[in-house]
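We give the entry.
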Amino acid sequence: QVRLAESGGGLVQSGGSLRLSCAYSGFTLNYYALAWFRQAPGKEREGVACISSDDRSTYYTNSVRGRFTIAADNAKSTLYLQMDNLKPEDTAVYYCATDPPSCNNWGDFGHWGQGTQVTVYS
């Protein structure tokens, strides 16, 4: 059974850093891409970062590129999102997800964790 569990969220001052973790089981990065999404209050869920299973290429949405880094350690079955230079607009519930082998389409992700809250204050 596919399971994903996010952790590492919290309250952080703008300009600060936070690292999210996602422990996963029931699949391997050898066959499935992994991604981070977020959902701010009143907003649609947004794809943030993705790492592909085929060549480990990464993708970032424009608003986080240069500030966030996605990485996966398949030996530890853990996905990470390093978030630097955080801004108040980064405040959201962050989710890890999997399902497709590539990062071509955010809509292909169908397995989700429960999410972890990130709040950035000025």
User: Anything to note?
Assistant: The first strand starts at residue 3 and ends at 7. The chain is about 0% helix and 50% strand. The radius of gyration is 13 Å. The CA atoms of residues 43 and 92 lie 9 Å apart.
